[in-house]
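Example (one chain per record):
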Amino acid sequence: MRYLYSVIIAAMAASSEVLAQSIILPAPVVHGNSFEILSNSRYSTHSGFTSTLSTQVVSNVLWAMNRVPRLGGYREFYVATPTNVYRYDSTAHALNVYLSGNHLYNAGAAYEVGIACDRYEEAGYAVQAGLLAGIAFWNASESNVVCSPQEFATEYANSNWNPVHQIKMIDVFGQAAATGLTTAVQAISSDSSLPRPRTTGSDTFEVLLSTLRLDSVFSPSGLTRDAISQLLWAGYGVTPHTPAGNRGLTVPSAYGTYYLTRRIYFVRDTGVQRYNNRLPPGTGLTTGDHRLEHVTTGDRRPQLRAACPRIPSTAPDYIVVCVGDTAAYGPMVEAGLAGFQYLMQAASLRLTGFLTAPITPAERSGIISALGIPATDLPVVVFSCGEPLTGTGVIENQIRFVEIIGIKTAAQNSPPVRIDYRLAGSARPKIVLFDLAGRPVRHFSYGILPAGANSTVWDGAGDNGDMVPAGVYFCRISAGGDVFSARFILSR
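Predicted structure:
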């Protein structure tokens, strides 16, 4: 009996040791692929993959998913592997064992990443960010990272992982053959109402996502036709892949249903238009189109703003995403997928964007009436967009106590790095350098420095003396109660 008791104690100790394990993830890496080419190339693989994927993939995926806007009071990420179920610590960018053992729904998966949050729309934001983060590992000729959001895996996780809050969606990742990146344009307007969108961009996906934010201050100037075309395509436009014989889109859809078809509206000063990504009458999922269809004439923006006072009143243009059933998970997740795409595309175009969700039942009814759209189209996300507000003198003439003049690196962005900054008065500046995951890698502290131009030189080493890897870094300088930040790329 004493021996059995000792065995039990030993087993409990071993179990505690396993549960205490954590994995410090590597910093996210930056690839050379733009948001546009990833969106155009995206497609889902539901089976046939294997579990051979590096930790770097899940590092980039989790970082990306955690960058999206929040809609509620909590957000939790869970990661199942063939070994354990982990919970993601975004502060440390680490995985902590949450449940020991193999609890994968898909036997061949490398990772199953689940998001628990208040709203399905937010889950959609995160899922789309994770999908593109995985596809960013593709190169021009082949791919080894495939993924798919799966309902059955989500149900399994909620029943078997014992999450603190309900998991809204599971993204399954693995290794399999894929066709690779493509710039082929399928979004061609049948009536010339929209110009062709471009499928490449100047910013890499990770760099663009690193500074993603909501902004509610706009210039009164309306969007150009090219910008309108690009935004509408990014959110719900056709792409080259053909799942189950249907023409695929920039976002996935449960069972290829494409719930938002003919339920996306563009609102501007001249009226309300419906976006169509299918040939007339607009419901044939095997077809592809890229056109605007007139709905109502006249400026309905004042009525829209009155119906939902939470949307920015200065935005010149709006995209209203509707669903047919607000109680079903599929349409609501899909609305979130599209919302993330609009926000990212706006950032790529150097536009200002703002997502408003969730929409209350009263606001929903008011928006339907304001826009004159069918009562069966239920608004769930409103995207406000326009040119950034500039030239007012408010930002340009603001007096900052500390201001970064510039960051210069040696040839090809390699160390040393010189950080030039200006102080409005004598102060004790503090400089912290962060990696792309938001982890501090180097601290600089000074005594009192004089007003005017000052410089700090970074040799590329962290606080521990080891040289940091190449990648995107952020410099934050604080002095006199003021904080100023800048981003730069370090090469080796």
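Caption: DSSP finds ten helices and 20 strands in the chain.
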